[in-house]
Amino acid sequence: MQQIETEIAIDAPPDRVWAILTDFASYPEWNPMLPAIRGEAVEGRQLLVRYASNKGPRDLWAKVSRAESQRSLRWHGNLVFAGLVVAEQRFRLRKRSNGNTRLYQTIYLAGPLAPLFGHRLRTAAMDGAVSMNLALKRRVEAAG
Fold it and tell me: Cα–Cα distance between 105 and 126 in angstroms, integer?
């Protein structure tokens, strides 16, 4: 399994970060990594997640496995046919002592084909997560 972890401080309370993170309809306006998501951030619901890639957008059917308001959002699905490359994306929001938020984004890649994509897949996921974190920070702080 490959694990990509990122974090960022956002100068806004968790409720504002959560509101923008879960407003999937607005993703095309600001999110460079996930330019579109159809569905709702509700545990057990299906999402159609569009990931940006250097070979063009890729769609992934995912299932929301956790949606705890202002704290945690997680989904998982198959990047390649059933189980060959499985991806899980997690977002954790932690309220800081000053009332602002620290966002942690973690991406897990597993399955028999995940090692074949190796460094290239890991680098793309890391770049995408960092760009999304920065874009989310700008969006939330501008809305404040």
Answer: 10
Distances (CA, A) of 77 to 30, 47, 80, 127: 23, 9, 9, 20
Domain boundaries, the chain: 2-143
Sequential pLDDT tens for the chain (144 residues) = 789 999 999 999 999 999 999 999 999 999 999 999 999 999 999 999 999 987 888 898 999 999 999 999 999 998 766 777 888 999 999 999 999 999 999 999 888 877 776 677 788 889 999 999 999 999 999 997
Fold of 2-143: Alpha-D-Glucose-1,6-Bisphosphate; Chain A, domain 4 (3.30.530)
Nearest-angstrom CA–CA distance, 97 and 42: 28
Q: What is the pTM of this model?
A: 0.92
Cα-only R_g, the chain: 15
